[in-house]
């Protein structure tokens, strides 16, 4: 049976190292796609294997998907040999004891037929076509994950969960002009999630909005007040609060890849915005796409304030980065697969809600813009200089939503953005995403979203 | 093939039209380093099989870990296949029998990656950087590929080295990839650390950039990044899906006459070299743009049949892709090109390239690791806070000069292994943060 060699492998590993971990992970995924009126195909994968991490003079890991113990010993010996070389050797070795957790939802992934999934894809493709979208892609997938984490300090954490996700791309072409949109939704649990989000209404509204955007005028660039929607407050929280507070980035471990952080070398805590701004990362939010009870290093997950009332607060840690800062790990060690090292990662990242309604935010703007969601975006590698291009956006005049405008651009920096926020709404909405990091690059499931927020006097292009 | 025999025995009895079994046996090592020491050593020892099956226009893909006892997973795949609708875009796999007589065999490159990592890290630090980060990979896979009519075994891999150096707020990055034929020794890579530090030092004193149209001298890394992100636009899949700015452009001028772009899968100086594609068609050097004229899209057998042409050996069966791009060199040296510039920018690298409009190729990307102002042929300073916010078709048409120097470039997911020169592009739109 796959995984049955975990304990035996740990026994061998701890005899050859100061500290040892064994992680066995099994991933089973299925998906199907529909493109431009045609079924595209289906896919199923089952992947499992062991990772072993050892500490001697340095840290080393080996990954193998063999169920032959002599192969695993060979992989272990490679790691042990390399761990005798000099290198960094800090890691928190704590144990959380023996724990189990399971999340599978009410409409379990095994109980939803492929026919039903394809029917959903087909219906959405037809809907998009009827609304005038010539370029269409719909993709549905689910995943089952089982994991055992053991370490030489006595940890034995067994977890099982399922996740479901839906992605669409819509494009409208008229007279050489093109507008495109993507939507991504997901949850940890089962297919009951899709009963709660009214996907068809979302798709209809989205396509109607990009269709109208094609004939909308651009805004005259200048400083103005801005109301941002949950999709934008979510991507901003993810990119410019979540990533720069991953502690491995702050100490330079991702320096040649996704980069460091604008917080690297700074005196902390550091003011990053107005008092209205707190940003939270919360893997314990039930139903979220980034939900887990224990992380992939066997540490209990919990909510953490990344920014609190305009200042940096806590950082996202795995066992290794926590040791570098000299604090306890806080459940941020995530790995996308058995053959990937756990890194400090986000889960569900959002600006903490305030007391306002959306209408109150808009009523407080004399002349400005409401940017509901975004299309193109990017940010520099220290997570400071960022750009978000509005997809659906409207001018605000005398406290009321006015005509639609096309592709307004927020191109600013992290501190200017958070410093401009003066009010945050109370309602939240979330969207799914895949966050990439590490080399080999590993994408982990996250939720991004949050409340509407209002920014004063921001330059819009 | 013996490795796949258990799987093939089962597949032959499933009344399938076509099948592909690609079992990869991987033996890869990696060293990561940051600050002034090594972070982690990683070793991967894996064996898994990717399987594609079809019955008529019904298609299904699966990946399995248990290559030795695959019955249940294959049974599951075939039972799912039976329930699927047809893919009306699917036109079948290659039905050509190949002999593969000239296929070359390789072994894993013999290199001490700990030593390589130490050499590069210390060359960066000794050159005056505050700190450096990077990694060294030695990748090797043997792939056993069987279809219903072809069988072939080949090797993939190479040595990949990356270093990024930090000096104040300046950064510099160098990377390379060495294939099985690379004549450069690992020791010659020592200069990468020094060059990364030199760039970082040059960028440590900077001013804020200004938006506008600029002539930009693009380094091979920046060109590689734009080509990596733009490469999907050449795929017949993207064209068919309506997501390419090159739709209906075969035979038309899509770039300046300076641009000659080939897919170069048999160039074993690079680590993305591959001798057969995913349906076992032998790969070949493929001209994609000649003197600015678009010659072909990238095809598998299926997309080629739909487009009324022949496969280019670029399967992905459903979604073809390039293997190893090569933007052919020009005649001038990069120093000559720089010397002739009146007013512009020299940008060494970029990341986070994202499109707001695939159809028209409209994107922005964030320059990094060396953004310099150029006045009258000289580098005069360093700037930050800018973006290239333009469109792929415009940049291709505005390429005015291509250097005779080329580099093997590769970096993370941002630059796929490729051979790129320096290029001078005119009137590129630059935006900035406010």
Topology:
The complex is a heterodimer of chains A (461) and B (434).
Chain A lengths: L5 H9 L4 E17 L2 E18 L3 E6 L4 H15 L14 E6 L10 H17 L4 E17 L4 E19 L2 E12 L10 H16 L7 E7 L1 H13 L4 H4 L28 E3 L22 E5 L2 E2 L6 H7 L7 E2 L8 E2 L3 E4 L6 H6 L3 E5 L2 E6 L5 E6 L2 E5 L2 E6 L3 E5 H6 L1 E4 L4 E9 L4 E9 L2 E8 L1
Parallel strand pairs in A: 4-6, 8-15, 14-23
Antiparallel strand pairs in A: 1-2, 1-5, 2-3, 5-6, 6-7, 8-24, 9-10, 9-14, 10-11, 12-13, 15-18, 16-17, 17-20, 18-19, 21-24, 22-23
Chain B lengths: L4 H8 L5 E17 L2 E19 L2 E7 L6 H13 L29 H14 L4 E17 L3 E17 L2 E9 L12 H12 L4 E2 L3 E7 L1 H11 L5 H6 L19 E3 L22 E5 L2 E2 L6 H7 L17 E3 L6 H7 L2 E15 L4 E14 L2 E7 L1 E6 H6 L1 E13 L3 E18 L2
Parallel strand pairs in B: 7-15, 8-13
Antiparallel strand pairs in B: 1-2, 1-4, 2-3, 4-5, 5-6, 8-18, 9-10, 9-12, 10-11, 13-14, 14-15, 14-16, 16-18, 17-18
Helix pairs in contact in B: 3-4
Could you walk me through the main structural features you see in this protein, from its secondary elements to its overall organization?
The complex is a heterodimer of chains A (about 450) and B (about 425). Chain A contains 9 helices and 24 strands. Chain A has about 450 residues and is of the alpha+beta class. Chain A has 2 domains: about 210 residues, PmbA/TldD superfamily (PmbA/TldD fold); about 240 residues, no CATH class. In chain A, strands 1, 2, 3, 4, 5, 6 and 7 form a 7-stranded mixed sheet that branches. Chain A starts with 5 loop residues before the first helix and ends with a strand. Chain B is an alpha+beta fold. Chain B folds into 2 domains: about 200 residues, PmbA/TldD fold (2-Layer Sandwich), CATH 3.30.2290; about 230 residues, no CATH class. Chain B is built from 9 helices and 18 strands. Classes of the chains: A alpha+beta (about 450), B alpha+beta (about 425). Chains A and B meet through strand 2, strand 3, helix 2, helix 3 and strand 7 of A and strand 1, strand 2, strand 3, helix 2 and strand 4 of B. Strand 3 of chain A pairs parallel with strand 2 of chain B, so a sheet runs across the interface.
């Amino acid at each position: 049976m796959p995984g049955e060699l975990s304990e035996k492998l740990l026994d061998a590993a701890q005899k050859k190292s100061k500290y040892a971990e064994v992680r066995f992970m099994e991933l089973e995924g299925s998906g199907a796609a529909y493109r431009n009126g045609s079924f595209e195909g289906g896919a199923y994968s089952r992947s499992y294997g062991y990772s072993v991490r050892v500490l001697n003079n340095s840290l080393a890991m080996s990954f193998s998907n063999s169920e032959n113990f002599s192969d695993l010993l060979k992989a272990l010996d490679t790691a042990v040999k390399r761990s005798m070389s000099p290198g960094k050797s800090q890691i928190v070795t704590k144990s959380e004891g023996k724990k189990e957790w399971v999340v599978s939802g009410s409409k379990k992934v095994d109980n939803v037929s492929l026919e039903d999934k394809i029917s959903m894809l087909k219906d959405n493709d037809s809907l998009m076509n009827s609304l005038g979208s010539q370029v269409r892609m719909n993709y549905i997938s689910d995943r089952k994950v089982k994991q055992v984490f053991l370490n030489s300090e006595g940890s034995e954490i067994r977890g099982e969960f399922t996740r479901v996700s839906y992605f669409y791309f819509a494009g409208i072409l008229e007279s050489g002009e093109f507008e495109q949109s993507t939507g991504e939704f997901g949850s940890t649990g089962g297919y009951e999630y899709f009963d709660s989000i009214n996907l068809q209404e979302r798709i209809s509204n989205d396509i109607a909005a990009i269709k109208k955007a094609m004939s909308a005028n651009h805004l005259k660039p200048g400083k103005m007040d801005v109301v941002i929607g949950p999709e934008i407050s979510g991507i901003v929280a993810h990119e410019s609060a979540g990533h720069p507070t991953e502690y491995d980035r702050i100490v330079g471990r991702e320096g040649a890849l996704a980069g460091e952080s604008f917080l690297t070398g700074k005196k902390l805590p550091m003011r990053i915005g107005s008092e209205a701004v707190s940003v939270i990362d919360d893997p314990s939010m039930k139903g979220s796409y980034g939900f887990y009870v224990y992380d992939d290093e066997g540490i209990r997950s919990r909510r953490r304030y990344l920014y609190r009332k305009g200042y940096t607060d806590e950082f996202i840690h795995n066992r290794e980065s926590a040791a570098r800062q000299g604090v306890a790990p806080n459940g941020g060690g995530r790995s996308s697969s058995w053959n990937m090292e756990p890194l400090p990662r986000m889960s569900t990242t959002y600006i903490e809600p305030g007391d306002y309604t959306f209408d109150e935010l808009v009523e407080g703007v004399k002349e400005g813009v409401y940017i509901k969601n975004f299309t193109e975006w990017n940010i520099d590698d220290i997570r400071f200089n960022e750009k978000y291009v509005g997809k659906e956006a409207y001018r605000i005049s005398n406290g009321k939503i006015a005509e639609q405008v096309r592709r307004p651009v927020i191109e600013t920096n992290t501190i200017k953005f958070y410093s401009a926020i003066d009010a945050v709404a109370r309602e939240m909405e979330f969207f799914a995403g895949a966050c990439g990091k590490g080399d080999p690059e590993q994408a982990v499931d996250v939720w991004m979203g949050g409340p509407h927020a209002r920014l004063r006097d921001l330059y819009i292009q | 093939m013996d490795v796949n025999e258990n799987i093939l025995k089962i597949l032959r009895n499933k009344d399938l039209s076509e099948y592909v079994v690609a079992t990869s046996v991987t033996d890869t090592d990696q060293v990561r380093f940051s600050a002034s020491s090594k972070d982690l050593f990683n070793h991967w020892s894996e064996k898994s099989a990717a399987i594609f099956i079809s019955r008529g226009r019904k298609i299904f893909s699966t990946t399995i870990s248990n290559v030795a006892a695959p019955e249940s997973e294959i049974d599951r795949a075939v039972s799912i296949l039976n329930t699927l609708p047809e893919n009306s875009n699917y036109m079948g796999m290659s039905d050509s029998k190949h002999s593969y007589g000239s296929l070359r065999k390789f072994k894993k490159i013999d290199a001490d990656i700990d030593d390589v990592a130490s050499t590069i890290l210390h060359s960066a630090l000794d050159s005056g950087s505050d700190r450096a980060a990077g990694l060294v990979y030695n990748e090797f896979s043997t792939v056993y590929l069987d279809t219903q009519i072809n069988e072939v075994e080949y090797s993939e891999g190479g040595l990949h080295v990356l270093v990024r150096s930090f000096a104040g707020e300046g950064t510099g990055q160098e990377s390379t990839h060495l294939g099985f034929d690379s004549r450069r020794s690992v020791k010659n890579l020592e200069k990468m650390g020094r060059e990364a530090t030199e760039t970082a030092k040059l960028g440590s004193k900077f001013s804020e950039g200004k938006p506008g149209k600029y002539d930009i001298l693009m380094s091979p890394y920046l060109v590689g990044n734009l080509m990596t992100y733009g490469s999907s636009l050449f795929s017949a899949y993207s064209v068919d899906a309506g997501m390419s700015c090159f739709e209906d452009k075969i035979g038309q001028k899509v770039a300046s006459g300076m641009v000659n772009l080939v897919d170069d899968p048999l160039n074993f100086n690079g680590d993305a070299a591959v001798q057969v594609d995913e349906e076992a068609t032998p790969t070949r050097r493929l001209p994609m743009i000649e003197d600015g004229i678009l010659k072909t899209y990238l095809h598998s057998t299926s997309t080629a049949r739909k487009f009324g042409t022949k496969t280019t050996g670029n399967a992905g069966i459903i979604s073809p892709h390039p293997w190893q791009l090569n933007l052919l060199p020009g005649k001038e040296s990069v120093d000559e090109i720089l010397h002739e510039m009146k007013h512009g920018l020299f940008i060494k690298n970029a990341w986070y390239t994202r499109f707001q409009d695939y159809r028209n190729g409209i994107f922005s990307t964030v320059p990094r690791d060396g953004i310099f102002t150029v006045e009258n042929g000289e580098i005069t300073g360093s700037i930050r806070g800018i973006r290239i916010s333009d469109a792929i078709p415009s940049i291709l048409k505005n390429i005015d000069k291509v250097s005779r120097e080329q580099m093997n470039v590769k970096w993370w997911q941002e630059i796929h292994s490729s051979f790129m020169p320096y290029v001078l592009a005119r009137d590129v739109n630059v935006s900035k943060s406010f």
